[in-house]
Amino acid sequence: MGKVTGFLEIDRQVHKYQPASDRIRHFREFTLPMSDQEVEKQAARCMDCGIPFCHGPTGCPVHNQIPDWNDLVYNGDWDGAIRNLHSTNNFPEWTGRICPAPCEEACTLNLEDIPVAIKTVEQAIADKAYEQGHIRPMPAASQTGKKIAIIGSGPAGMAAAQQLGRVGHEVHVFERESKPGGLMRYGIPDFKIEKHYVDARVKQMEGEGVTFHCGVNVGVDKTVSELLAEHDAVLYCGGSETPRPAGIPGAEFIGVHDAMPYLVQQNRRVGGEDIQSVAWASEPIVAGGKHVVVVGGGDTASDCVGTAFRQGAVRVTQLDIRPQPPEKEDKLTVWPYWATKMRTSSSQAEGAQREFQVATLEFIGDEDGVLTGVKCCEVDEKRKPVAGTEFVIRADLAFIAIGFAGPISGGVTKELDGKMTLNVDARRSTNVVANDRDYRTSVDRLFAAGDVRRGQSLVVWAIREGRQAAHAIDKFLMGETVLPR
């Protein structure tokens, strides 16, 4: 695929960023786009590798046909490239921005640390499609008469809604928040993806007949029983929102917060919305002029770091209980799987102080109950505290970002308690039980997909689950389906 000798002749190149000193002054995206000619050259590097691990089970959850659309871009057929990309991925402008790109880890050229710039090419294809007006409604030619409700408008819910709407079903999406998008709108900062990309897809889907009902908290404002009575099938895509319990003493001090309310607040500010909401009501949380500590080493923790810098934090320290990973992995041991190696996010590169193999022992506060510091210590390979290594980091603000333990306990799960089977896994996560073939729960005509079923995961996995659930629902209702899995 691509140019046969392209990988030998052309050096790997990806999007560059605005300097950190400039980008922390705003909440907009900060990648500097490449020209069409530069992108075509990068697509030309896709080699005829025989077995393209990039779009197999180790590479791309939605099975993007990466070699095919690289070849189309190399040959200047951008229209063909977006058609190919849309055949497997409803929202490539999302994944092209925020996916960690396991496809590049699985690229054959990654054996030499020079993988094809797949993520950069994917974003360029999607952005080009917007430029040329290819992101437009594609309504079904006829209607089936079937009516489907989807609970949650995150990536899984929106992917399922679009697929089901395009085969002629009447689709209604119920969203607790004031606007559609779920995690994409309220969890992921604008500097990673601006929300007009979510708005554009909502507008497209409305043009395809999908109806969005915002401000409706299913299980509270409207029951699941009502939805089941009014619809032929219901798909639950409520996400994984319950913070994993940290069990750290002092978490009650003023200035200690879970990560997600902080990120949601700032996304609301950027979007011009009131930061007070039914789901995330709290006092304003702002890092300006403060010493900030972020507990956790994942993407949510990194988003807190970048947000704090943009709000004017004096210092941001990130604590990771895991040991500092090696700079380079052993390719022959881990390739084509996701490797454990030292990775620095754009937010961390903006000046975060990173502490590895460190446990958070307690939050320290003054007599007024206000946070003043975080007590930590080094841990051994079993994550047990090492005696005599305790130290205290000054902190005016601390965020706990150690993951999520399943759907919120109220709403749907509360209403269906005892009826819908839940599973508690080894990570102390509670997920809705449904397999990844038919996505059916223990409640008749109720399906589940995305993080609520799988547990916290990547946006690309949510899109895959939404698409596959749509396939299963269409087959359940019609006896057969033309929708791909």
Please name the defining characteristics of this protein.
15% strand, alpha/beta, 485 residues, five-stranded parallel sheet, 17 strands
Question: What would you note in describing this structure?
Answer:
The strands form 5 sheets. The chain has a 5-stranded parallel beta sheet, with helices on both faces. It is of the alpha/beta class and 485 residues long. Helix content is 31%, strand content 15%. The longest helix is centred in the last third of the chain and has 20 residues, at 459-478. The chain has 18 helices and 17 strands.
How many E-type strands?
17
Residues in β-strands, percent? 15-25%
Q: Main sheet, how many strands, which sense, barrel? A: 5 strands, parallel
Helix content: 25-40%
What is the general shape? Answer: globular
Structural class comes to alpha/beta
Q: Report how far apart the termini are.
A: 25 Å
* Average pLDDT: 95
- Helix tally equals 18
Q: What Rg is obtained from the alpha carbons, in whole angstroms?
A: 23 Å
Q: Strand order across the biggest sheet?
A: 5-4-3-6-17
| Unreliable parts | none
Write the layout of secondary structure elements.
Layout: H1 6-9, E1 16-17, H2 20-23, E2 31-32, H3 36-43, H4 66-74, H5 78-86, H6 92-98, H7 102-106, H8 118-131, E3 147-151, H9 155-166, E4 170-175, H10 183-186, H11 196-207, E5 211-214, H12 224-230, E6 233-236, E7 256-258, H13 259-270, E8 291-295, H14 299-310, E9 315-320, H15 331-334, E10 353-356, E11 358-365, E12 371-378, E13 391-394, E14 397-400, H16 412-415, E15 422-424, E16 430-432, E17 446-448, H17 451-454, H18 459-478
Parallel strand pairs: 3-4, 3-6, 4-5, 6-17, 7-14, 8-9, 8-14, 9-10
Antiparallel strand pairs: 1-2, 11-12, 12-13, 15-16
Helix pairs in contact: 3-4, 3-8, 4-5, 5-8, 6-8, 9-18, 13-14
